Amino acid sequence: MRKRLVAGNWKMNKTPSETRAFLKELAPLVKGAKCDVVLCVPAVDLIPAVEAAKGSRIKIGAENMHFEEKGAFTGEISPAMLTDAGAKYVILGHSERREMFAETNEGVNKKALKAIEHGLIPIICCGETLTQREQGITVDHIRQQIRIAYLGIAKEDVKNTVIAYEPIWAIGTGKVATTEQAEEVCGAIRKLIAELYDRKTAGQVRILYGGSVAPSNAKELFEQPDIDGGLVGGASLKTDFAKVVLPE
User: Fold this and answer.
1) Annotated active-site positions, please?
2) For the chain, how big is the Rg over CA atoms in Å?
3) Whole domain around residue 142: which residue ranges?
4) Residues 177-182: contacts with CB within 8 Å, 24+ apart?
5) Predicted confidence (pLDDT) per residue in 50-59, tens digit
6) How far is Cα 132 from Cα 225, in angstroms, rounded to an integer?
7) CATH number of the domain encompassing residue 58
8) pLDDT (tens digit, 9 = 90+) per residue, 100-154?
9) Number of domains in the chain
10) pTM beyond cutoff 0.85
């Protein structure tokens, strides 16, 4: 059985002092969680978040990283910097990075390989625009994203990766894919992993749904056979995030 994972993506929110205060408040609320709980925070918040989360159920991740070890890459952060700061996870290929910062499938692949090399668990994002969904090419588009992202990843490493399906039209809009739509795409992703590797490997990969996940819809989404948790945006900035981690 795959262990559920609920990960928050803070995006460009919260200062270091706000991070410490928030973790102090959130930690006791998720103490009883049986799932993995992760908060992916801005780079400046990594060290205070790791320190504040010590002894709790919460693990800390980053929102992005470069695929080079070091060098003249102003403003970037390396995998070694993340691991030394205490990060355990890293989000790769989020639609905002793809759309605003021109990240490519090939770049996501390089980052995923480097993350694995450094012992980080990559949360590899994929998703379609509203136009792509309306044109009926959602699954084809996402298959291409995942095929390229997993180029060169060895079968034994796949179980230490996470895939997050986020329909771009549902991120921060309040719109949510129906349970059937979300399960259909997550099921198609698992089928592709089985094609690329085998059924056993596909059964080990955790696939998350993201896109306006909230306490009101988390339980129904997480009960689907191919949805193993959520990548949560705005709702992870409030202590109500505990209600997504422990949906009623």
Assistant:
1) 94, 166
2) 17
3) 5-245
4) 177/209, 177/211, 179/220, 179/221, 179/224, 182/209, 182/221, 182/224, 182/227
5) 999 999 999 9
6) 25
7) 3.20.20.70
8) 999 999 999 999 999 999 999 999 999 999 899 999 999 999 999 999 999 999 9
9) 1
10) yes
